[in-house]
UniProtKB/TrEMBL annotation:
Its EC number is 2.7.13.3, 3.1.3.-. It is found in: Cytoplasm. The keyword Transit peptide does not apply. One of its GO terms (cellular component) is membrane. Residues 183-380 form the Histidine kinase domain. Residues 33-60, 90-166 form a coiled coil. GO terms for molecular function: ATP binding; phosphoprotein phosphatase activity; phosphorelay sensor kinase activity; protein dimerization activity. SMART domains: HATPase_c. It catalyses: ATP + protein L-histidine = ADP + protein N-phospho-L-histidine. Keywords: ATP-binding, Coiled coil, Cytoplasm, Hydrolase, Kinase, Nucleotide-binding, Protein phosphatase, Transferase, Two-component regulatory system. This is Signal transduction histidine-protein kinase/phosphatase DegS. Gene3D superfamilies: 1.20.5.1930, Histidine kinase-like ATPase, C-terminal domain.
Length: 389
């Protein structure tokens, strides 16, 4: 208890530090965003002024260029008829042409500088737009993180209390997965793999039997091979069915449950009764059908392994808006409130029904059997499918 309390206090301190750091980071990002926004507005204003100046300089340049062309023509005219003009007229024509040429060069240089400044501002504005967009995204993301730390993680104390149980459950799942892989590997090795090897060996003998004992004997060997192949195919299909019932995709939940429970009754000494009420043709989302099938499978397997029942009843009622399932057995029963090493099956069922957004209740007592009830409301979160044709 002391260790749990100290862990909780330590976690609260860590969360407090994280909140402080995330809050400071958010403020810094906001400051960067505001500085960038102010620079963007200032540059946008300057860009408008530069564009106006460029337009004004271009207009001046065009007028000056036209005046310079007239001045050069005037200078050429004076030069050709030098004797008809006074020295003062020649001097004025030359000075006017030179002045306009200098003014034109100055205007062209000014236009070039203004264009370069305009291009620089436009590039900087594009960069600032990217910075502002990234800053807004970061502020949004940091806000989400801050809210998560300030809200959800404050309930971490409650999460710590069942952390050990969750960890054991996770380890149990891994162990169960490994055991399932070993079981499937053993079944394939001892069943289909051995039979296929035997088929291969005997197929090599068919020609020898034909040559030594005749066609009729060879045909008998081929018939035996066909029987073995059919048996092997049946074993493969059974293994595939255990991993993922194909009928679940093709026929739906009710027919698959009916077939599974019938097979279970044939392979055990239990009397298994299955009842379906409501709309059997309603199809659910694939995830929901698989989840409900696995819960029923887990429930009846738990009863078979641990409760030693003689009678198991499974009833499903399907409506357009709800699905209800009841699994009842007359086995030894147990105390649901008592923690047991083998209670991970029940925990797994609860995890599945929580993932489906449904409810699960367990009523049991030692010597009185067990009743498990499932209820799922069909809505957008569960994804009810359309009715099959």
């Amino acid at each position: 208890m002391v260790t749990l309390l100290s862990t909780k206090l330590s976690l609260d301190e860590i969360i407090g530090q994280m909140l402080s750091t995330v809050g400071d980071s958010k403020e810094q990002i906001f400051e960067i965003s505001e500085k960038s926004r102010k620079e963007y507005e200032s540059l946008q204003k300057e860009l408008n002024e530069v564009r106006e100046n460029v337009a004004s300089v271009i207009d001046k340049t065009e007028r000056t260029e036209m005046q310079a062309r007239f001045a050069r023509n005037r200078l050429a005219e004076v030069s050709r008829h030098f004797q008809d003009y006074t020295n003062e007229d020649v001097k004025k024509a030359y000075e006017r042409a030179n002045e306009l040429q200098v003014n034109l060069a100055v205007l062209e240089q000014e236009e070039k500088q203004l264009r370069e400044r305009r291009d620089t501002i436009e590039r900087r504005l594009v960069q600032l737009e990217g910075t502002l967009e990234r800053a807004e995204t970061l502020v949004s993301q940091v806000t989400v993180v801050y809210n998560f730390l300030a809200g959800d993680l404050k309930e971490a104390g409650e999460m710590i209390e069942d952390a050990k149980e969750k960890q054991q459950f996770g380890l149990k799942i891994i162990e169960a997965q490994e055991e399932e892989r070993k079981r499937v590997a053993r079944e394939i090795h001892d069943g289909p793999a051995q039979m296929i090897a035997n088929v291969l060996l005997r197929s090599e003998l068919v020609e020898r039997v034909k040559s030594e004992q005749g066609v009729d004997k060879a045909m008998e060997e081929i018939q035996d091979l066909r029987t073995m192949i059919k048996s092997s195919l049946g074993e493969v299909r059974r293994i595939i069915y255990d991993l993922r019932p194909m009928a679940l995709d093709d026929l739906g939940l009710v027919p698959t449950l009916n077939k599974y429970l019938s097979n279970l009754e044939e392979s055990t000494n239990m009397n298994v009764r299955f009842t379906s009420l409501g709309k059997d043709d309603v199809r659910l989302s694939p995830n929901l059908e698989v989840g409900l099938f696995r819960i029923v499978q887990e429930a009846v397997q738990n009863a078979y392994k641990h409760a030693a029942p003689s009678d198991v009843q499974v009833k499903i009622e399907m409506k357009r808006s709800t699905v209800s399932i009841v699994i009842k057995d007359d086995g030894k029963g147990f105390d649901p409130s008592a923690a047991k090493d083998n209670s991970f099956g029940l925990m797994g069922m609860r995890e599945r029904i929580n993932a489906l957004g449904g409810e699960l209740t367990i009523d049991s007592a030692p010597g009185k059997g067990t009743v498990i009830m499932l209820h799922v409301t069909l809505d957008g979160s569960t994804g009810q499918g359309s009715d099959s044709a």
